[in-house]
Amino acid sequence: MTFATYKINITGVVQGVGFRPFVANLARELSIMGTVQNTGSGVEIFSSATKDTLNIFAASLKDKRPPQSHIAEFDLIEVEYTAFEEFTILPSVSRERAAPVFIPTDLATCPECSIELADPANRRYKYPFINCTQCGPRYSIINSLPYDRVSTTMEQFKMCPECQSEYDNPADRRYHAQPNACPVCGPQVWIGGLKGVEAIEYTANLIDSGEIIAMKGLGGYHLICDATNSTAIRKLREYKRRNTKPLAVMCQSLSDITIEMDEELKGALTSVEAPIVIIDWQNHPLSELINPLSNDIGVMLAYTPLHKILLNTAKTNYIVATSGNKRDEPIAASVAEAEEALSEFTPHFLHHNRPITNRIDDSVATKSAGRVRLLRRGRGFAPFPTTADKRTDKIIFAAGAQLKSSISFTKGAYTFVSQYIGDLDNAATVDFYTETYNNMRRILNAEPQIVVCDKHEGYHSTSFAKSLGLPLLQLQHHHAHLYAVMAEYKLTDNVIGLIADGTGYGDDGSIWGCEVFALQNGVISRDYHLEYVPQVGGDASVRYPSRMAQSWLTHAGVWSEELQERMGITAEECKLTNALIKSNINTIPTSSAGRLFESVGAMVLRINKNEYEAHAAMALEAIANDNSGRYSFELQNGNILLAPAIQELTQDIIDGTPLADISAKFHNTFAESLVECAKKIACDRGITDVALSGGVFQNKKLLERVEKLLVKAGLNCYIPIRVPSNDGGISLGQAYWCIINDN
User: Fold this and answer.
1) pLDDT, tens digit, for every residue of 370-413?
2) How far, rounded to the nearest angstrom, does the alpha carbon of residue 493 sit from its chain's CA centroid?
3) How far is residue 621's CA from residue 700's CA, in Å, rounded to a whole number?
4) Which fold has domain 374-493+725-740?
5) Contacts of 585 (CB under 8 A, 6+ apart)
């Protein structure tokens, strides 16, 4: 028999998921001698045995790995034979991390811990910080890598003898579970002078009494109340100045969701990522104030032990669990931040003393065009990377966009996309942006060598990128949207991009937003775009869609006093808007799909002020039925002319056509106009791959209509899944553009 020693380097999610004990136990089963240890880049294994046994070992490492692990790279080389006496787990080492390191993401409470949590005989019964190697906090508590307790915010909690024994025992599922703790030695919750279970019981009583609670969770604070209590929800909406924007709901288990769901939706809800999933919940038992616009309800299952205990203790089965923040500010993460930011909402705070290094919001997903897709990338998903087929030796920092901001770092073939940061329009979110940059740079050991940002000079992300003093590249906003989809599917060339978005600084100085690109032989061209109309008052048109509605109606030649009265706009406002349009003062041409959808929402539903981004557009989508009709449009000299559609739509409004029919016909018209552009490019250039991106494609009715028409036309349709189609994906697109173009 031939004996040998293999050195195996594994990168991926292999820290914090029980990988080393898995390796050690597997080696011992096969009578292999050697070592395993965490390094700055992943896991390093030395193993000695017969070559046949070592080959079985290598294959089993891939095939039988722990369920929450992910192997990105598996490098095996034969080295000089070493006669180890046993197989041991060595202490972690911090080496210069030339190779990329995967940061473990936060994981929902596993079934085993859930059973222990509910077992009165277990020493962790009702302990709100129970965890093991298969669940619990990861990214939210990491200060640096390798992922060891001393590198997390759990360092301050010295394990008691029982916890230490579990932590040191390779046969225990808590072996090297870095957040391991119990009521004796671990973090604690409190409210006022009450601690532990008493504090949770008191909090549950407050919820049942109709009170609002600020509760510290895994990545920050939630504002919580009974989701069936309209009085409590109305009070919360008043406090947050959030009249109609949907609120997220948390429940204990799938059985609490009283509708039939397909396996993919169930899988998303029960996954270790445990995102908020938007479902069509007809006849739900919740207050109608959860979502006044429709039966689309954002639901998540209790994903931490604290949430589980609270729901099990309260009388209600459903709680509102919305981000604990002031409007447009980041989620509060510390006791001091919470009490400063949230005291205007509630006097009741359920705190805990496990510090949060990386604040992170809940992820949000929905099912559209046959797949569950992310709308907001946060807890459970960030900062898991995407992988390119091409490597770069340079570390690239991608600064992202202004709205729904995220940032990205590249290492090798991997792009690490941050959690959702938010809109960079206030000081608190700008500070969070800088905090996230510094944390990711430190954890990834990634000192940027190249910076890429948007072309909009007014974006904070652009000014931040320039402030770094590094070689700088700038990519047009909607090009970045296209490259983000390409990154997810590893496309490199010959792609049609259908981009339906709100705002992006265009190469011609106008505001783009509905663009049809053709990328061929490495060159991108703008073959079609929505016809330009004046955007009146700059960003004020985003807040007041009636202004853009008047602009579109004037452009289409159908503006009238009758429409003004129907839309409920004052004569003074109309006069001012008309004067700006005629004089071309404080206006800019725009091809924005977002502004178009909001305009039609204002026309049809008289929503003259957006309470939140895309409010009027979302309300328009909510009423659309299955009418298969459409309005007229033309393609002319690279322009998508929808003025004819606006003329016919306006006549439908005047004639009293059901609003649901009008909405459906408008959605169909816009979808068919985009697909017609794609078909023409495909015919002229022979390109068959089509990528869809931009915030407007979060509209399920539009997305599904476009996808269906593209497939019918024989084209390949690529739609984002694990990275949002909105501006949360911009940083990924920027980074990928640099990678594949050798920038």
Assistant:
1) 999 999 999 999 999 999 888 888 999 999 999 999 999 999 88
2) 26
3) 8
4) Nucleotidyltransferase; domain 5 (3.30.420)
5) 579
Output the CA torsion sign for 535, 541, 542, 546: negative
By the 10 Å C-beta count (0-12 exposed, 13-18 middle, 19+ buried), 76 is classed as middle
The number of residues in the chain equals: 743
Q: What's the start-to-end Cα distance of the chain, in Å? A: 51
CATH architecture of 528-718: 2-Layer Sandwich (3.30)
CA distances from 526 to 569, 589, 715 (A): 36, 16, 19
Q: Which CATH class is domain 189-366?
A: alpha beta
One-character DSSP codes across 517-586: EEEETTEEEEEEEEPPEEEETTTHHHH-HHHHHHHHHHHTT---HHHHHHHT--HHHHHHHHHHHHHT-S
Burial 642-673 (b: 16+ CB within 10 A, else e): bbebbebbbebbeeebebebbbbbbbbbbbbb
Range 3-89 has CATH code 3.30.200.20: no
d(CA 484, CA 400): 11
How far apart are alpha carbons 532 and 26 in whole angstroms?
A: 64
* DSSP-based three-state secondary structure for 400: coil
Q: Is the peptide bond before 720 cis (omega within 30 degrees of 0)?
A: no
Residue pLDDT, tens place only, 474-514: 999 999 999 999 999 999 999 999 999 999 999 999 999 99
The neighbour count for residue 172, using CB atoms within 10 Å, is 17
